[in-house]
Amino acid sequence: MYLFCGSVKMRRGYLLVEMLVTIFVLAMVMVTLDRFFRTFTYDLPRDSRLIQENSTFNNVVSYIRADVALAKTLSQAGDDSNEPNTLLVELSNGVVSYKSRNGRILRSFVGGATSAASGDMVWSVPHGRIEWRVWSKGKTGCAVEISTCIEDKSFGHIRKKMANNNLFFAGALRETAE
Predict the structure, then answer these.
(1) Which string of DSSP letters, residue by residue, matches 79-121?
(2) Integer Cα distance of 68 and 91 in angstroms
(3) Which of 19, 37, 126, 155 has the CA that lies 20 to 30 A from 110?
């Protein structure tokens, strides 16, 4: 059915070829924009979580650095599978222990005078891994090596992201604090 407008015929619909071309062009635009949509719905929240966990690790490491700098001795306990990996830091007013288990890191203070900064603290890092190894000189620990990373599982593979290694020496600030 055609409308006549003067001497020119006008159509009231689209041809099948025009519709197929329009659908094809829309499909190509959607394919090219798919990566942008995936970035906003998947990559940005995942990267935000990784950055938050790395910030938490930096906070834990700063507490360990402060405690180790004032430490008299260092020791490590709990190598069997039932007990978590434990770092013991002996200070002049008590002992600070750090335990890592099931995506959580616990800092507890035992003995001596207590203050607001010496209470128990728990950090949650579900995808993170922290390991410490005490370096010994004779029978006493003189330094602690801390390795941190975030294990990101994507597409069935575990990738270690934001891996850091730190080495802190015991008693580095003890002389100036006393």
Answers:
(1) -SSSSPEEEEEEETTEEEEEEEETTEEEEEEESS---GGGS-E
(2) 8
(3) 126
